[in-house]
Write a structure and sequence with these properties.
Length: 182
């Protein structure tokens, strides 16, 4: 049964467009969501993201639950803010000194926005993406947001690459992804 579910998830990834990233309540959303709660009540997205970030020796790995909680709170794809940190700072490894700013948030030349902690940064960026880039400016996908968020026209494509890599990691590492009992 597990193999059938994993095969169905793999087929869905191949067949559903990968451009959208913001969670939508409508059925037309291209966002792929893995089953998230196991029989024990643990959120598999946290385990997936923790394992994924550990591959990069990321200082953000212990904050996977903060990424998932903020994504749920602000109705974002659970992979998005982590994916942006991959593009902007190699998952938190290359940041302005003592800034906890892995997202290039408010970084222009010598101007740097500093966060108090990683979880402060995760929450601030998640809220800002939802409130400013999506609700206020109307960005519906990573490409529309990238036109405002980043100076590089390649930025959105790089973020999409990490979104896809996290998804592929989840599917290729079922021991880190799903614990389903039927």
């Amino acid at each position: 049964m597990k193999n059938i579910i994993l095969l169905a998830l793999a087929a869905a990834i191949i067949l559903i467009p990968q451009r959208a990233f913001a969670q939508q309540s409508s059925a037309s959303s291209a966002n792929i969501q893995l089953p998230t709660v196991t029989k024990t009540g643990a959120d598999s997205r946290v385990k997936i993201l923790t394992s994924y970030l550990r591959q990069y020796d990321s200082p953000l790995a212990p904050y996977a639950s903060d990424f998932v909680a903020a994504a749920d709170k602000y109705n974002l794809d659970w992979r998005l803010v982590a994916a942006i940190s991959g593009v902007e700072s190699t998952f938190g490894k290359e940041i302005p000194t003592n800034s906890y700013n892995a997202w290039g948030w408010g970084v222009y030349g010598d101007n740097v926005i500093n966060f108090k902690s990683w979880d402060d940064g995760i929450n601030t960026v998640s809220e800002g993406l939802r409130e400013r880039y999506m609700n206020q400016w109307g960005g519906k996908d990573i490409y529309e947001i990238g036109a405002v968020y980043a100076s590089s026209p390649a930025w959105a494509g790089h973020v999409q690459l990490y979104l896809n890599r996290i998804q592929e990691f989840a599917l290729s590492n079922p021991q880190d992804a799903l614990s389903i009992s039927l």
